[in-house]
């Protein structure tokens, strides 16, 4: 496994290099729950990569990479059977739209959080995605500049270990 380590200070270390990263607006937590704005503590395996084929080329990665479409979303309603799963829009439950006007979801690394098995209210849509230019905090995801994200994917990233201390 080729894992990166993310520290609460917003530093991601991978293969001996450090990258600036954004994490959840409320920091890192060992008790993740839906809507808390925190990045979950622990090992988050990279399951697959989604990308905007109209904006970027298919990312090189050691997991499957699939293009997204305007009708793609992610269910974040803990009371719905599709909770923490990719869905097709329109969708009757609360969801996040993956096809965005901004570049944040031009590349999405789907991280393995609350997916084996899925437990209601334990958190959904924990992604590795593109950071804002000023590294604004996320809603619980991990975010890097596009060039850094593409680089670590191409260099074989397989998981991110989120740690509370450096």
Report on the architecture of this protein.
With 166 residues, the chain is mainly beta. It has a single domain (3-162), classed as L,D-transpeptidase catalytic domain-like (Beta Barrel). It is built from 1 helix and 14 strands. The strands form 3 sheets. Strands 1, 2, 3, 6, 7, 11, 12, 13 and 14 form a 9-stranded mixed sheet that branches. A 3-stranded antiparallel sheet has the order 9-8-10, with no helix packed on it. It has a two-stranded parallel sheet with strand order 4-5. β1 (3-7) and β2 form a beta hairpin. The protein is globular and about 45 Å long. 38% of the residues are buried.
Explain briefly what this protein structure is.
The protein is mainly β. The chain has one helix spanning 146-154; strands spanning 3-7, 11-14, 17-20, 28-29, 39-40, 42-51, 65-67, 72-75, 86-88, 95-97, 107-111, 127-130, 142-144, 159-162.
